[in-house]
Amino acid sequence: MIARHVRKLEAYVPGEQPRARGVVKLNTNENPYPPSPACAGVLKHFSLDLLRRYPDPSFCALRDALAKLNDADPDCVFIGNGSDEVLSIAARAFVEDDESIGSLDPSYSLYKTLAAIRDVKWIGAKNLSTRIAPKTSLFLLTNPNAPTGEFREPSEIAAFAKRFRGVLVVDEAYADFARANCMSLAVAPTNRNIIVMRTFSKSYSLAGLRVGYCVGPKNLIDAMYKVKDSYNVDAVAQAVALAAVKDQAWMRTNVAKVVRTRARFVTALEKRGWNVMPSESNFVFARPPARENAADLFAWLRSKNIFVRYFPGPKTGDRLRITIGTDGQMKALLNAIDDRFCE
Ligand SMILES: Cc1ncc(COP(=O)(O)O)c(C=O)c1O
């Protein structure tokens, strides 16, 4: 009854969303600041008649605004129910049954699950100079990477795309927190295989809305439209995301606050003997001093209502991924760490 590959599938495990109040929640890279007040305005005045009807299947108003924002042709923009859906549509559109999906290892762990859902091989690469197996038709590259926070220069990514024969999706979920991005590669008329993907979940503070999008060559975007559900982005999401796009100043201000807090927090951790990987994201990937075990510390912090993320395994298990919250939240975490070491 259940397909063989689904029976053995290990489902993706998202970060915990605690119901309890008072949790210092630094585990899923949400933005600690609220979305643009323009979003609240849209919700307040949202017409029920728009809910009676189906939403625009081609999300034209939002697509046009995103095209304008990124200097792209509207026909080269695709929008999904979160960038997770964009990724799953890419896996549907660009991979044959006997091909494989590649990504860096470690990277966003959903990529491996997407390959398993498609019942194709997943290939983990150490870096972009690793030889990629010829049957890899889709490469999912997070930049800045997750969970490490590491940033790769667009020139390195462009060189990789030139060598790579398949479709390269550059997952720029965290690009607004970084010094540069690959959007100009995606909109270049000579581009044949680069799709750049963004989300409203991080810099725009709209993780609950579920909107992500991508920009790329028209023939690839057309293929994505072919395999999407008819009404994949609901009417409320389209309208609220549009309001957020139009308020770039609000998003930029919040991003700047997070970046400043990130710098202060990294200094504070390093003073306490932690090893912190250089991050251009809204999180850091940090190894506690030798006397402390990352898994134990994760569990202990959780018991104190401070949630961070722990990824077991040989490449990630000695570190914690900590979302950058407000200064107050980071202080609460640092105080807890200090208490622990005094215990
Ligand atoms: C690298 C990366 N890509 C995509 C996503 C998913 O984003 P969305 O909320 O748009 O589905 C995440 C979420 O944490 C992420 O870390």
What does it look like?
It is a single chain. The protein has helices at residues 4-7, 37-44, 48-52, 60-69, 83-93, 110-118, 154-163, 183-187, 218-227, 235-246, 248-271, 294-303, 327-342; strands at residues 24-25, 77-80, 100-104, 121-125, 136-142, 167-171, 194-199, 212-215, 275-276, 283-287, 306-307, 320-323. The chain is of the alpha/beta class. 39% of the residues lie in helices and 15% in strands. The chain starts with a helix and ends with a helix. The protein is built from 13 helices and twelve strands. It folds into two domains: 15-34 and 249-342, Aspartate Aminotransferase, domain 1, CATH 3.90.1150.10; 37-246, 3-Layer(aba) Sandwich (Aspartate Aminotransferase, domain 2). The mean pLDDT is 97. Helix 7 (154-163) links the parallel strand 5 and strand 6. The strands form three sheets. A seven-stranded mixed beta sheet has the order 2-8-7-6-5-3-4, sandwiched between helices. It has a three-stranded antiparallel beta sheet with strand order 9-10-12.
List keywords for this structure.
globular, Aspartate Aminotransferase, domain 2, binds pyridoxal-5'-phosphate, 3-stranded antiparallel β-sheet, Aspartate Aminotransferase, domain 1, 15% strand, 7-stranded mixed β-sheet, 343 residues, alpha/beta
Low-confidence stretches: none
CA-based gyration radius: 20 Å
Quick one: biggest sheet? 7 strands, mixed
Which structural category do the helix and sheet elements fall into? alpha/beta
Strand content is 5-15%
Under CATH, the topology of the largest domain can be stated as Aspartate Aminotransferase, domain 2
Bound molecules: pyridoxal-5'-phosphate
What would CATH call the architecture of the largest domain? 3-Layer(aba) Sandwich
The span between the termini is 54 Å
CATH-defined superfamily of the largest domain:
Type I PLP-dependent aspartate aminotransferase-like (Major domain)
CATH class of the largest domain: Alpha Beta
Q: How many separate structural domains?
A: 2
Gross morphology is globular
Nearest-integer average pLDDT = 97
Strand order of the largest sheet: 2-8-7-6-5-3-4
